[in-house]
Structure formats: structure tokens, C-alpha cells
Design goal:
Strand order of the largest sheet of chain B: 3-7-8-11-1-12-13-14-15
Helix content of chain A: 25-40%
Oligomer: heterotrimer
Number of strands of chain B: 17
Distance between the termini of chain B: 73 Å
Radius of gyration of chain B: 30 Å
Chains: A alpha+beta, B alpha+beta, C alpha/beta
Shape of chain B: elongated
Radius of gyration of chain A: 22 Å
Number of helices of chain A: 3
Structural class of chain B: alpha+beta
Largest sheet of chain B: 9 strands, mixed
Largest sheet of chain A: 2 strands, antiparallel
Structural class of chain A: alpha+beta
Strand content of chain B: 15-25%
Chain lengths: 95, 481, 486
């Protein structure tokens, strides 16, 4: 089966800033992998729904209790850029 | 020929729940705390951290759903909504997609005399994002030089309530929003403060030729910070769309922001591919199963809802608009009413006082005050006994609200008590009748208007404190014997 | 001392014959001999390990041992968060990153008195089958440095094989514990999904990831598992019920057990020597009284396809958080969008990029139903087939990997060929069931062969019982050339 891939669109969705050469390289590879993966479409899955957990468990909640937060100094120390008590990033292009 | 246009409006509401801790971690839910102090591996999206759902938040969304007459899904699922944004730590939001907790409810809304049932499509659970502070040029997104990020709000439980496109006017949309806000506040699950952002409204607006069924192109409006701006924004957007369509132009599907100062919506640069959220079931969280008995337990724990209250009030004999006003009045006002009635005040009278003068007086006061039901009962009793004129009673009410003193005390202090002692009034009336033989004669010979003159004389003699009703009655008696 | 098992080291430590510090020094000495060739570690925490060993000595001296792992030097894969200790997941995007917290498994190991020696090399974000996708260079196979150790937990497997730790942990999403265990000649175990908390394990594919141990013996693997298993309130997918009790019946043998040979896991693409060793072991089991039969699971034929839709889809969301905002690498950009796109393009290696693209595609508008949605249904079908087969068989057996260790670079240009090396291990991840790889011999090139035993969910008891029997039958006691001191 042939699979159509708008690789530039996919890369934009995934926020991957790839070059034209990289895009075409990955498009070709994805095509091969997806042709193989498309085998799933031949399987009869009548009556089957997605499985959420192999043990069939549901409803695990936590009590509404406050637990200590992290130390801000430690939190900000890991950041590539900060300004005062904030993380800082370049301005947004989009709203 | 001009076409008549029909607006079609749907409202999406985001309600921040006021739980102790966040939706998926133990960080404190706090408003206005120091930036980036209420964060942990989970709500900061650190590698390896996992979410676990807050049990109280799950109870509360069911409360909201039940109050909105929704069906609570027996099985519900969290989904990941994928999009990149700097204040969304994981670059996906844990939300719900095709299996929300609550579905298919409604809220009855009244504008003027008309009551309309507004459908609720769904109410689902999700997590809030962090906050972006756009630096430079007044904080406007477009010309910012950088963005500061505070993740204290990240992961605060949010319930999104989506109406059906059943609203038909800006005032109706406002009424819906206000009633919904009051309901949520009454359930005790959120501060529901619009100005603080703990309840946020977005509107989807389209217009179509009156009498047609197909929906027009819808525009989403954001950034409305008060009920007034919500109404103005929708009205302005309706006008904009009608103007476009009448010029033969098309409405573009987009998101527009409301500019309060300009009094108009403006277009946001549209997000590329913003609709391809790649929802899939959140594998870090298990399905939610709500057992029927659990739902019934939560239903039993609901307070009396405005709609039920309104029906009860109407049953007590009050006018529909009074019943509605009182049903939607604040809890303090309603408590004053219920207490006064419990002491024996006639419900319709007490309701008129609470929905009318008391509501108005409370609003006028600078500092919030409440009125003990016992005090209102005393006031009603004095007016019923004819010892206070209606205008005097209004004066007494305001003073009671300020001082907390009983009606009797306030009325005496202000010297407003009417003479309603029959024997005292009989003496005063006799004196006037005896001292005005000429006038009495003219009345008896059929000159009706002289009656008023005689009443005036009695009022003068009693320094205006006589109960005018009683004076009328006694004077008529004495003149006709 | 570096050739101790956990059990024998535990006895020696308890008897006071050796100290935890001496044991640590001996494994570090082994590491210093082998690491130049092997590169199994990304970080060795000399200071932290010495402090932990000293604390262990103190407890042992006072008779306050915390149990069988007291003083035992261990390592964890570099995708386990370790407080203040660099955690890169083998990726450039996390170079230098020090988490502010310990993964639950790490916290439990520390609480059990274990000495954490360091963090082992792996394929970037656990994506790969050869440990060649590490941004910091590959790990090599201790049996032949020209060969890969398998992956993605290749560093853990190699470190245990040479004795630079007595046990290690990895994560297994599609075979990332069992396949390198097989290729390095050690025991590797993936527990039932939900038995070991994933909290603090940097997620690859959340519904498939499971933490598990590497050890030289089946008994040691069990000891390691017991230290980390059990419900964790921080992981909503963790199982609240009791951990299966395994040890009491560990040595009961296979007599009367029903052993199923999976028809679909053999034939074309399988090394003849691997196939021969596998069937010889099956014969041995039959000789021991096991009831052997062949079973068929048609969905296994498409398990790889299902896996290569579900795992990348989940990974595309799990790895979205690496955006240059709060931690890790940032490549400058004029706008935040540009900054993120450059950071991610620069920070992720080709395999991770490929899988993010694949997963994003499989979830995107118009393709979800045909790919991701369909794969989820096929997964359910596979689970149902396994449940049926487990009514006829107590355990299923197969090779762990179709081949023994391949040469470095042999499959790096052909993703599909690389993916095929997980064909035997993937079904257990899709079904969430337990599976273990036990070394059963060497091929003619002197490379280890692994034997896989699968059991139904929470069926660890019978799985371990079989594994122990296989271990005894194989009597595999060869040591890799690199483990032998010059």
C-alpha cells in the first residue's frame, strides 16, 4: 500500500525544524515503515475496542491533599534562560 | 429588501475549581502566590513525572454536571490534546475528547419575561496552563520582546462547560453566563470570579438569515473580562458579521479578541494547524468509572438549585419575576428571606422586601452587610400593624442594615412610628370634627373633596405621625354618624 | 569479588567477610578495566556510591541491614531520574540535566540499602535495539566489541555481564531489557505492566514501558524485582493488588507445567543456531516433565506493525515536553516557535526524530482511524488471543531475539531491519504480560543465545519457576572475554 505523507506538515505539528533534505529523507523512511505498519488494516477487529490497561483497572485517584512543591531556586537552575523568578522565552509569533 | 438576521451563539466556560491541591499533583492551588513557587515535577512537565487525578475534583465535576441536569457518563476517559505552547509544560493538555464526564444537560435562562432552555452539550475535566507575561509594549502579544512564564497555575483543575448553540442574543448570552456563574459559585466548587480569571467565558458567534436552519460561519471571541464586556463583545461581533454579510462579503472562521477600550473585536493571527490536536487516550491515567450509587450520593449532596428554588417560591405565592430574582439572589439575601419567613413573615411580602429594597440597599452600601431575618421580620410586623409608613419603613431598613438594630429601635430613634392607637386617633379626629363645623357641613351636603382637607387637619394635629389609613377610617365613621 | 552474584555477595556482606566499600571498590576496578572498550556507563557516581557504601557498612556493623540488597552495587539506565545526578536518556537534548527528584524505583533501591554506582548507556530515550542511538556513543558487546550489546538498555546488560555492577535496571518498551540481556548473556526480566512504578522513568511509550532488572542469575533478578515492585500512589497505572508471591515455588521445577511453543516466533529470519538451541531447551523441559505443545497466535504476525504505530504515537506526545523552555538544551530563535523547532531538531537524534514524525503522522487528522485507532484494536485482539492461549498453556516460550548480537552499524541504515530484532519481545509489551530472557548457551561465534519465557498477566510465579528450571538445565556459566581480568 502506498502512503501519502505531507512531511512538512507533520514536522510542523511536531515542532521539528528540519531542512528540506532531512524532510525528504524522513519522508522516504516513513513511507517504508508505514507500508509495513499498514498491515494492521488487514486484521479483522470486529468487536474489539482499545484496551486502556492490561489489568483492566480503573479509577485510581489521589486524595485532595497539598504536598510540598519544589524549591524555586532549584527549579529555575535547570532552565536554559530565566529572568528574575520567571522562565523566559522569545516572543510568540502566534496568538 | 433587507434580510433579518438571527444570531446563533454558543458559550464555552472554563471554571477553575477551588480544590486544595492541583488536578494531577499535590501542589497547592493558590491565586496570586509568588511566581513559580507552587510547582513540582508533574505540573512543570519534568521528564518522568506522572499525573494522578484529584478525587475531589472528580466529585466536583459530577456536582456541576448534575446541577446542569447532565447525564454522568458511566465510563469516561482522559485524552491528551497536543499543541505546542510555552506555558503548556508538556506541550499537551490533559483534557477529554469523545468521552467527557458529563453530557446532555440544560440550564433555563430568563431574559425579560421569556424563559428559554439552553442545552449543555458537555462538561469535561482538564488542567489549566501556566501564565505568559508578554514583555514590552504594554504586554501586547504582537509586539512583545520576550515572554515570562509562571507555572503556578499549571495543572489547576478546570471544568469546561460547553453550551449548545442555543443562545439567540447578546443579552441572553449574558443572562446564561451570569446564571451559570451563580450556580457554580453556589455549588461551592469555585471562586467563580470573572475578574480574577477563575471563571472564563468564550463565545462562538455566527449569524444566519432568520428562518433558516443552516449555521453560518462561526467566530470565536475571547478575552471578555466582565459580563458587561461579554454582552458588548457579542453584540459588536453580531453587528460586524451582519455588516459583512449585507455587503455581500464572507465571514472568516477565526478567533477574535475583544478590545474593551475600542469596543470591538480584533482578529488574532490564526494558529497554523491549530485544529489538528491529535487527541488520543491519556495512557498515564486510567478510565473513569462512575458507579450509579456514587452519582446518586453526589446528587443527594447537591444544594437546592436556583430552578427548584424558583418553583418553590412561586408555590409560596410570589410573582414570577420576584421568585426568579430571589431564586438567583445571593445566599445572604436568601438567608434573610428564609429566616423572616420561618418567624412568620408572609412569604410574598418578605420576598418583595428582599428582592427589592434589601437587594438595592445592599448594593448601595460600600461595605457588604447582611440583614438578620429576625430584623426583617420585625420591620414587616411594624408595617403590617400600620406603625410604619412604607416610605418610613424603607428608611428604617437602610438604617437597620447599617446599625444592626431592631426596627422598633431604629424607628423610634428616627421618630418614624405612626400613631395607630385607635382611641388616640379618635380623640384627634373628634377634635378636628368639632373645630371645623363648616367643613363638616359641606362634606355632609355632598362635597366629597372636603374629606381630604379634614384628613390633612388630623395629620397636622398629629404632626404627621397618624396612620393615614386609620385616620380615613375613623373620620369617615364620625362624619357618617 | 566483581564475579559475585547478588546472593553470594549478600552472604559475604552479612557474614562480615567483605565490606560494602570493598565490594564497591572491586566493581569499580572492574569498570575501570572494561569501560574503555565497553562504554556501558554514561555517569559513574564515585562520590555518591562511596557515601552509600559507607552508610551500608555502618548499618551492617550495627546489624541493621535493610535486606538482600544492602551494600550491593547496582546501576540504573540513564532514563531513570536520579536526584542531582545527571540524567540524559542518552540524548543531547538533556545533556547536563540533573533532576530534582528520584524515580520511585531508585528511591526504593536506596531504601533497600543498595549502592547506586551510576547510570548506564542506552539508545536515546530508549528508542533502539542496539544502543547505537546514544548521543554519547554506543555501548559494545562484552562478548565481542565489534558487536552491539542489544538495546535499548544495552549499557545495563553489558555492565552486569562484565561484573562492573552485580545487578542493574532497565526499561522495556518493546524488548529493551530482554533483547540486550539475550545478546549479552544475562537474565533480563520485564514484569507485568503496572507491577513496578514508572514514576520518574522518562517515558517513551507510557502504555508499554515497564521497569525491570538485569542479573547474572534468575534468583538475583527476582531479588531485584522484589525490591522495586508494588503499588505506588504516584503512578496511576500501578497495580494496587499484591505483588505475586514467587520465591516459595521458585525451585519447584517444570514437571506437569504446560509449555507452549509459539509457532509464529520462528522460521524465516531466525538464526539456525538460535532455533536449534531453543528447541533443544524445549526438549530438555519436556524431559523434565513439562507438557510441551505448539500454539498459534496469529496476531503476533502483526505485533511489530501495531507496536510501530502505538509506541511512536505515545512517544510523539511524551517527548513534546523537550522544548528548550524549562530544562535541557535550547537553540536560540527569533520567536518561541522557532526556538522550539530548532532546539528539537538539534537535540534529537535521527531515530527519535523518525519516531516522533511517525507517531505524529499516525495521530494526525485523517490518519488516526487507519493507523493509531486501528492499531489499538489489533492490540486488543492480540491480548484476547493471548488470554485464550494461556488457557491451554501455563507459559509460552520462544527465542528472545531471532539472532545473536549483530555487528555495529549493520542495521543503522535500515530502520525496519533493526525493528525486526524485537519481533519476539514486542507481544509481551502489547499485552502487558511478564516475560523473561534466560541465557542458554553460546553460538559457534561465541555469542550468547537467550531463551524467552512468557506468562499471563500477574503470572510471574510460574514464569520464574520455569526460568529457574531453564537456568539449571542450561547451566550457562561462561564469562565474556571482557570480564576476565588481563
Amino acid at each position: 500500500m502506498h502512503v501519502d505523507i505531507d512531511i512538512a506538515y507533520v514536522a510542523r505539528l511536531a515542532r521539528l525544524g528540519l531542512s528540506a533534505e532531512e524532510l525528504s529523507f524522513y519522508r522516504d523512511q516513513l513511507g517504508v515503515i508505514l507500508e509495513h505498519a499498514a498491515k494492521v488494516q488487514e486484521v479483522d477487529t470486529e468487536g474489539f475496542e482499545a484496551t486502556a490497561h492490561p489489568l483492566g483497572i480503573v479509577n485510581q485517584f489521589r486524595p485532595d491533599e497539598i504536598r510540598p512543591s519544589l524549591d524555586r531556586v532549584e527549579v529555575l537552575a535547570a532552565a536554559p534562560a530565566t529572568e528574575g523568578v520567571y522562565f523566559v522565552v522569545p516572543p510568540a509569533l502566534e496568538g | 429588501m433587507t434580510t433579518a438576521w438571527e444570531p446563533v451563539i454558543g458559550i464555552e466556560v472554563h471554571v477553575e475549581l477551588s480544590t486544595q491541591s492541583k488536578m494531577f499533583c499535590g501542589c497547592e492551588v493558590s491565586f496570586g502566590g509568588e511566581a513559580n513557587t507552587k510547582v513540582c515535577p508533574t505540573c512543570l512537565g519534568l521528564p518522568g513525572a506522572l499525573p494522578v487525578a484529584n478525587s475531589v475534583a472528580m466529585d466536583w465535576i459530577v456536582r456541576i454536571g448534575l446541577a446542569l441536569q447532565c447525564e454522568v457518563s458511566e465510563r469516561s476517559v482522559f485524552h491528551r490534546k497536543n499543541y505546542f505552547y510555552a506555558d503548556l509544560p508538556k506541550n499537551y493538555q490533559v483534557s477529554q475528547f469523545d468521552l467527557p464526564v458529563c453530557r446532555d444537560g440544560f440550564l433555563d435562562v430568563t431574559v425579560g419575561e421569556e424563559s428559554r432552555r439552553i442545552g449543555i452539550e458537555r462538561a469535561h475535566m482538564e488542567e489549566d496552563t501556566g501564565k505568559s507575561l508578554h514583555q514590552g509594549d504594554g504586554g501586547r502579544i504582537h509586539s512583545a520582546t520576550s515572554t515570562l512564564l509562571d507555572f503556578n497555575r499549571s495543572g489547576v483543575p478546570l471544568v469546561e462547560i460547553v453550551s449548545r448553540p442555543d443562545l439567540r442574543s447578546a443579552p441572553e448570552a449574558r443572562a446564561y453566563a451570569q446564571d451559570l456563574r451563580n450556580l457554580v459559585a453556589e455549588l461551592g466548587v469555585s471562586d467563580a470570579r470573572m475578574e480574577a480569571g477563575s471563571i472564563r467565558f468564550d463565545a462562538n458567534v455566527s449569524v444566519r438569515p432568520m428562518g433558516t436552519d443552516a449555521l453560518g460561519t462561526k467566530v470565536e471571541i475571547k478575552n471578555m473580562n466582565s459580563f458587561r464586556s461579554l454582552e458588548r463583545a457579542i453584540a459588536s461581533e453580531i453587528d460586524r458579521q451582519v455588516t459583512l454579510l449585507e455587503k455581500g462579503e464572507k465571514v472568516r472562521q477565526e478567533t477574535r479578541h475583544w478590545d474593551e477600550e475600542a469596543g470591538a473585536t480584533y482578529s488574532m493571527r490564526s494558529k497554523e494547524e491549530s485544529s489538528d490536536y491529535r487527541y488520543f487516550a491519556e495512557p498515564d491515567l486510567l478510565p473513569l468509572v462512575f458507579a450509579a450509587d456514587k452519582v446518586e450520593e453526589l446528587r443527594a449532596g447537591l444544594p437546592e438549585l436556583p430552578a427548584d428554588r424558583r418553583a418553590r417560591f412561586e408555590g409560596l405565592g410570589m410573582a414570577p419575576h420576584t421568585a426568579r430574582a430571589l431564586a438567583h439572589a445571593g445566599a445572604e439575601l436568601r438567608r434573610t428571606f428564609e429566616e423572616a419567613v420561618a418567624l412568620g413573615a408572609p412569604p410574598a411580602t418578605a420576598a418583595n422586601w428582599v428582592a427589592g429594597e434589601l437587594t438595592a440597599a445592599t448594593r448601595r452600601l460600600e461595605t457588604p452587610a447582611t440583614l438578620d431575618g429576625r430584623l426583617l421580620f420585625g420591620l414587616i410586623e411594624m408595617t403590617e400593624e400600620g406603625r410604619l409608613s412604607s416610605s418610613a419603613a424603607k428608611e428604617v431598613l437602610v438604617e437597620m442594615l447599617k446599625s444592626g438594630d431592631e426596627a422598633e429601635v431604629v424607628a423610634a430613634r428616627l421618630d418614624l412610628i405612626q400613631i395607630s392607637d385607635t382611641s388616640a386617633l379618635e380623640a384627634a379626629v373628634s377634635e378636628v370634627v368639632n373645630s371645623q363645623p363648616e367643613a363638616v357641613e359641606r362634606y355632609r351636603s355632598g362635597e366629597q373633596k372636603v374629606f381630604g382637607f379634614l384628613v390633612g387637619m388630623v395629620m397636622k394635629a398629629t404632626a404627621g405621625k397618624a396612620d393615614p389609613k386609620l385616620v380615613n377610617q375613623i373620620l369617615r365613621q364620625q362624619l357618617e354618624t | 569479588m566483581a564475579d559475585f552474584t547478588i546472593a553470594s555477595a549478600g552472604s559475604a556482606l552479612a557474614a562480615g567477610e567483605i565490606s560494602a566499600t570493598e565490594l564497591l571498590d572491586s566493581v569499580l576496578a572492574r569498570a575501570s578495566l572494561t569501560e574503555a572498550d565497553l562504554h556501558s556507563f554514561l555517569t559513574i557516581d564515585h562520590e555518591g556510591a562511596q557515601a552509600a557504601a559507607a552508610a551500608s557498612n555502618e548499618r551492617l556493623r550495627r546489624g541493621q541491614s535493610r535486606g538482600p540488597l544492602e551494600g550491593v552495587p547496582l546501576a540504573v539506565k540513564d532514563n531513570f531520574c536520579t536526584r542531582n545526578l545527571e540524567t540524559t536518556c542518552g540524548s543531547k537534548i538533556l545533556f547536563g540535566y540533573r533532576p530534582p527528584y528520584d524515580a520511585t524505583a531508585v528511591a526504593r533501591l536506596r531504601a533497600a540499602g543498595a549502592v547506586l554506582v551510576g547510570k548506564t548507556n542506552c539508545d536515546e530515550f530508549a528508542m533502539g535495539s542496539s544502543t547505537e542511538n546514544s548521543a554519547f556513543g554506543p555501548t559494545r558487546n562484552p562478548w565481542n566489541p565489534e558487536r552491539v550489546p542489544g538495546g535499548s538498555s544495552g549499557g545495563s546488560a553489558a555492565a552486569v555481564a562484565v561484573g562492573s555492577v552485580l545487578g542493574a535496571f532497565g526499561s522495556d518498551t518493546g524488548g529493551s531489557i530482554r533483547q540486550p540481556a539475550a545478546l549479552c548473556g544475562v537474565v533480563g526480566f520485564k514484569p507485568t505492566y503496572g507491577l513496578v512504578s514508572r514514576y520518574g522513568l522518562v517515558a517513551f511509550a507510557s502504555s508499554l514501558d515497564q521497569i525491570g532488572p538485569f542479573a547474572r542469575t534468575v534468583g538475583d533478578a527476582l531479588t531485584l524485582f522484589e525490591a522495586v515492585a508494588g503499588h505506588d500512589p504516584l503512578d496511576a497505572t500501578s497495580y494496587q493488588g499484591p505483588v505475586p508471591e514467587i520465591r516459595p515455588t521458585l525451585a519447584e521445577g517444570v514437571s506437569g507445567l504446560r509449555v507452549g511453543i509459539v509457532r509464529e516466533l520462528g522460521g524465516e529470519g531466525y538464526d539456525a543456531e538460535v532455533a536449534a538451541a531453543t528447541s533443544a531447551m524445549v526438549d530438555n523441559l519436556a524431559d523434565e516433565g513439562a507438557k510441551v505443545s505448539e500454539v498459534s497466535l496469529p496476531s503476533f504476525e502483526v505485533a511489530l506493525s501495531v507496536y510501530y504505530l502505538i509506541a511512536p504515537a505515545e512517544c510523539s506526545a511524551n517527548l513534546a515536553r523537550f522544548d528548550g523552555v524549562r530544562y535541557g538544551l535550547r537553540v536560540a530563535g527569533e520567536t518561541v516557535e522557532e526556538m522550539m523547532a530548532r532546539t528539537r531538531a538539534e537535540g534529537f537524534g535521527p531515530e527519535v526524530t523518525r519516531r516522533i514524525l511517525l507517531g505524529t503522522y499516525a495521530l494526525s487528522a485523517g490518519y488516526y482511524d487507519a493507523f493509531y485507532g486501528k492499531a489499538q484494536k489489533v492490540r486488543s485482539r492480540l491480548i484476547a488471543e493471548m488470554a485464550t492461549v494461556f488457557e491451554q498453556a501455563d507459559v509460552l516460550v520462544s527465542p528472545t531475539s531471532p539472532t545473536t548480537a549483530f555487528e555495529l552499524g549493520a542495521k543503522t541504515q535500515d530502520p525496519l531491519a533493526m525493528y525486526l530484532s524485537d519481533v519476539c519481545t514486542i507481544p509481551a509489551n502489547l499485552a502487558g504480560t511478564p516475560a523473561i530472557s534466560v541465557p542458554i548457551g553460546l553460538d559457534s561465534a561465541g555469542l550468547p543465545i537467550g531463551f524467552q519465557i512468557m506468562a499471563p498477566a500477574l503470572g510471574e510465579k510460574v514464569m520464574f519457576q520455569t526460568a529457574k528450571a531453564v537456568e539449571a538445565l542450561a547451566n550457562f556459566d561462561a564469562r565474556p572475554p571482557l570480564a576476565v581480568s588481563p
